[in-house]
Amino acid sequence: MTYLEQYAQYVGMLEAELERLLPETDAACPQEDAIPQHLCAAMRYSLMAGGKRVRPVLLLAACQMLGGDIEQAKTPAAALEMIHTYSLIHDDLPGMDDDDYRRGRPTNHKVYGVGHAILAGDGLLNYAYECLLGNALRFPRNMEGLVRAADAIANRAGVRGMIAGQSLDLLSEHMEPDAARLLYIHTHKTADLLTAPLLAAAYIAGADEAQRDALCRFGFCVGIAFQIDDDLLDVEGEAALLGKQTGMDAQRGKMTWPALVGVAAARERSARLWDEAEEALSIFGERAAFLHGFAAQMRTRKS
Ligand code: GRG
């Protein structure tokens, strides 16, 4: 199977799991234990709008590479995509970045209104944890591994992780770029949600400490490179390919890597990090072929 076929297979697994966990609610037949139809539609609008599905793909691929049970990994992969999608919905709100387009469509609040966009994000976040806990109960023989995986996801998505990064990102608008502050923002806003799937996979599969550390190093380098590339795409990318407007960082006075060191140095830094990410995989040998393919593919991404 080629890398792209394998990627598509993981995305297929994820999307089937999302459909299983969050099916459309039938308005004609509301039930006491069902999610209200309008809320469910708002959650599904952003969740089922495509996107690269990078985080769940990393979780499924790392779990398989480590010889873990992929059945146990499907719900954590879906939960992580729910958390990522909630963060995008909230990031697009008027009180934050106030964006009109995401994943090639009008943003959630443009379609459902601000109130329901907030609720759709809250709903996805809360439901993700409901799914993670339910999954740990569903596989009692690996309860500890699954709870540790859920803990790793909660921790990296939380107030010392992605939310902390987002807070500093907002507070740093229109400030003079500063390398230490920028690294903190990138580490937490972006890299934490890329190490989360790798660490979660390591816990599900019962990997040892050296394997966990190598995966964390890979995730960190991928995360920082991914964010630098995102900043570069905002300067040089094509809105049609990205599915969102470009040039917004400069307009909002965001602290970014190109603003700190210039476009050419940012490009160089990203290339070095992609190389470092691949070096971190050496302990896995040929088993890491998919993750090498991932790095090779992502470093040239246009969307
Ligand atoms: C609101 C708590 C809270 C956090 C928001 C995700 C985020 C943090 C902000 C969005 C803006 C941004 C550039 C974040 C950095 C992470 C990032 C590059 C997100 C976009 O992820 P992709 O490219 O998106 O994987 P798709 O749509 O492909 O899933």
Q: Given the helix and strand composition, which structural class is it?
A: mainly alpha
Instruction: Write down the CATH topology.
Output: Farnesyl Diphosphate Synthase
Main β sheet profile: 2 strands, antiparallel
**Tally of extended strands?**
2
Overall pLDDT score: 94
Helix content: over 70%
Radius of gyration (CA) equals 19 Å
Bound molecules: geranylgeranyl diphosphate
Taking pLDDT < 50 over at least 5 consecutive residues as the criterion, the unreliable ranges are: none
The geometry reads as globular
User: Helical stretch count?
Assistant: 14
Number of domains: 1
What is the CATH superfamily classification?
A: Farnesyl Diphosphate Synthase
Write structural notes for this entry.
- This protein is mostly helical and 303 residues long.
- The protein has one domain (3-298): Orthogonal Bundle (Farnesyl Diphosphate Synthase).
- It is 71% helix and 1% strand.
- A hairpin with a 2-residue loop joins strand 1 (101-102) and strand 2.
- Helix 2 crosses helix 5 (108-138) and helix 4 runs antiparallel to helix 8 (179-205).
- Bound molecules: geranylgeranyl diphosphate (GRG).
- Geranylgeranyl diphosphate binds at residues 51-52, 54, 87-88, 90-91, 103, 162-163, 166, 189-190, 226-227, 230.
- The site of geranylgeranyl diphosphate (GRG) has 16 residues, from helix 4, helix 7, helix 8 and helix 9.
